[in-house]
Structures are given as structure tokens and as C-alpha cells.
Amino acid sequence: MHQFGRTYRAFMAAFESYVGQPMPRWRIMLALHDHTGGGLAQKQLAERLQMDPGALTRQLKVLEQLGWIERTTDARDNRLTNVSLSDAGLSVVLECMPRRVAFLHATLDGLPDDQVQALSEALAVIETRIAEAPVQLGMLIAEPAEAR
């Protein structure tokens, strides 16, 4: 697990250094870029990114201050806030995209496809187990010690 943590931190730092954007900010901008059909409801964006709504709001405030996104009240439902890339934000995404592609290529270059696939599958299993852990831990705590 220590290796996993070290690799994660190294990847995040290298991504930001090379691409020029921190990963959380980049994920938001890329999701907005990839979404077709105008703005995306902030709630949908949080779900799509599997991101805590509070953390998303903090990131969106920074992006809005930079002038890279626009937030507007939904015309059909004023309880919803829609988020979209501004022209400046689109320019940033288009400028960073080649560096992102080059970074990912350099990072994974030389790894055989089967190893990349195995890594992806292993990470998916870990993600599932992390999501299930609170339920499993709750069962262990609720069980009497003699039953274990």
C-alpha cells in the first residue's frame, strides 16, 4: 500500500508539473469539455466525477475566478446551477491537451498492453472494495466477538 500511495503522489505532482493543471481542476475542465449540449448541472458534474459536492464547489470557485468557467442558474429549474467552459477555459483545455497526451504516453510507454489492462482491472477491484469497506467493517463491528 505504501507503493500505491507513493506512486499516486508522484503521478499527481508530475501531471501538474508537466500539464500545468492540478488533476482535480483538470478533471473538471475535461468533463465540461467532453460534455456536449451546453452547460452541465453542477450536481451531474459531481456525480460524473464521483467528487464530493463541497470539494467540487471549491474547485469551481477557483475556476470561475480564473475566468475559465461560467456558472448560471438553470432556466427551467432555478434550483440548479449549470456549469460550462468559457472561451478562455476552452483555450486552456486545448492548450493543455497535447501535454496531457504526451504525459500519459511517456508514463505508460513501454508497458505491455496486458500489464496496463491488469493494472486497470486491479485498480477497479480496489475501488470497489473501498466503496464496500464501510459496510463490511460495520458488519464486523456489529458481530459479537465470539462469532468471529
UniProtKB/TrEMBL annotation:
Pfam families: MarR_2. CDD domains: HTH_ARSR. SMART domains: HTH_MARR. GO terms for biological process: response to stress. SUPFAM superfamilies: Winged helix' DNA-binding domain. Residues 1-128 form the HTH marR-type domain. The lineage of its organism: Bacteria, Pseudomonadati, Pseudomonadota, Betaproteobacteria, Burkholderiales. GO terms for molecular function: DNA-binding transcription factor activity. Gene3D superfamilies: Winged helix-like DNA-binding domain superfamily/Winged helix DNA-binding domain (1.10.10.10). This is Putative transcription regulator protein.
